[in-house]
Amino acid sequence: TLCCVSTLGLAITLCCVSTLGLLFDLVYREETLLNVIKSVTRNGRSIVLTAVLALILVYLFSIVGYIFFKDDFILETMEILVSEVGLMLDVFSCVPNLPDIVVVGEDMEDGKERTCDSLLMCIVTVLSHGLRSGGGVGDVLRKPSKEEPLFAARVIYDLLFFFMVIIIVLNLIFGVIIDTFADLRSEKQKKEEVLKTTCFICGLERDKFDNKTVTFEEHIKEEHNMWHYLFFIVLVKVKDSTEYTGPESYVAEMIKEHNLDWFPRMRAMSLVSSDAEGEQNEIRNLQEKLESAMRLVCNLSGQLTELKEQVTKKYHLPFEELLLRASQVSNEDIQWFFC
């Protein structure tokens, strides 16, 4: 019987531990949950230093409370008595059971207890109840009367603890955590945006494929599919080196040297062919313009030849001689002729 109980307890313990391990594995695999943990650990130094500042302030307020407000540290307490000592292991929940628990609070005087008779107890009380109370340590201390001589000092004490510890220090810690989580979320969004708008293999952006024969989606799915590159790397690793082809030998050597120069960085065959077609179209357009210009020159030459013939017939002089005489006429002669 004892062996069966031990075996059952071991099996239940292993089940609980394995379940805990699976839960942690889920946290590790889910990026959002992992960012929650990183929001605390990334700026851990700032959080720790701020927490040290909070402890220093708690220590100072504990000293002031121990010196001036020792009688105000009176808290309600309840004593727990266990009539039967023993632990039973719940088979289904893996949680220890405390049987026959009796709560007794009437035996104490008014159910209250002084918690600042020593400096250590003052520190523990301020640290435990002061930080967990929404209004600070003043929420758990005795409510003083306005006729007491230290009433104003007590009000200042409660307000200073509330503003310095609760509002400033704790919110500084929360602010660091929230800002870190926001930065991690922004980084995640930037990564997703880069993966959506940039080719993982060549690094070309989506706008490079505008007005091209190949779209960006076709490029990342067919031309530069990252899984095809991964399969090729696995093929090179598992294939016998004596059966390598030329490209496989080159890639295997580059992988061994951790060199990524064999990746087509910032270039793609589809863009090269599109650019070549574009250049051919430009050359074709230039040729057409050149041919039209040559035809225009031929027409002008024909018209000039006809003009020469007409001038020669009319004035019985060569066209070149007429041009020479016209160039020799001065501006004064032209003005005299018109006057």
TrEMBL record:
Q: Which GO terms describe its biological process?
A: calcium ion transport
How does the UniProt record describe the way this protein sits in the membrane?
A: Multi-pass membrane protein
GO MF annotation terms:
monoatomic ion channel activity
Write down the superkingdom of origin: Eukaryota
Keyword Transmembrane helix present in the record's keywords: the answer is yes
Keywords (A to Z) from UniProt = Coiled coil, Membrane, Transmembrane, Transmembrane helix
Give start and end of each Ion transport domain: 19-188
- A Pfam family that this protein carries is Ion_trans
Residues annotated as transmembrane: 6-27, 47-69, 159-182
Where, subcellularly, is it found?
Membrane
Q: Which residues lie in coiled coils?
A: 269-296
Annotated Gene Ontology cellular components are: membrane
UniProt-recorded name of the protein: Ion transport domain-containing protein
